[in-house]
Amino acid sequence: MKTKAKIYGDITKKISEKNKELNLKVKNFVPYNFSMGTELKKHEEYLKIQMDEMKKKEEEEKRKRREEEEEEQKKRKEEEEEEQKKRKEEEEKIEKKKKEEEEEKRKKEEQELLEEKDIKNNETFEEKKIRLVKELMKEVNNLPLTQNKLNKLKNMGDIKKDELVTFVKTLMLNEQEAFENMKTFFEIWDIMKTGYMHKNLIISILKQFGDNLTEEESNYIQKELNQMSESNISYVKLLKKWIYGTEE
Known about the structure:
By secondary structure, the chain is mainly alpha-helical.
């Protein structure tokens, strides 16, 4: 495709050649009223044809550019619509999964409630008694029910709620007395008197203190000790945290 500069250059060249022919004829004394007039007319027609062609080419180029721009806009619009569609599908997928998880959680909770209700309806008298004591102990301070106390509870037979309360009170320790007793017990093992002890040794000492720890209690304490970053732990702070709820 010729550029505008090339087209104008070609026209100028042709006009220049025509002018040379006209000048040559003038020099050769060609009569103006015939030869000169005819050549000028042809020259004007030629220029008009060339200008019309150039105008058509410019319009054709504009039309092509316009079509290309429209095609590009159409393509961008289609890409944006496709992107929006994908984004919407992804959002719907996430929302659907969220609803499914919520529904699954709700059904699971309902099933657990039904199972718990079924257990309560079918539990033995002894199981019911133990469950009530555990619930009451949890309310008063989440006290531990040791094996010795559990055996004692099983041997008590049919008891009323106020008797359960009295039984639970026997589980409550004097905090200061419990702290001093356990602190003294740890100090016996602390030969260097540093106030610190390796966390693996702490669980071994606790198993020997008072009633034997149940497997569940041992696992709970071991898990709590494992979460501590230090290997050597201040047993005084640890006992204060367990008994008083604070390390201070």
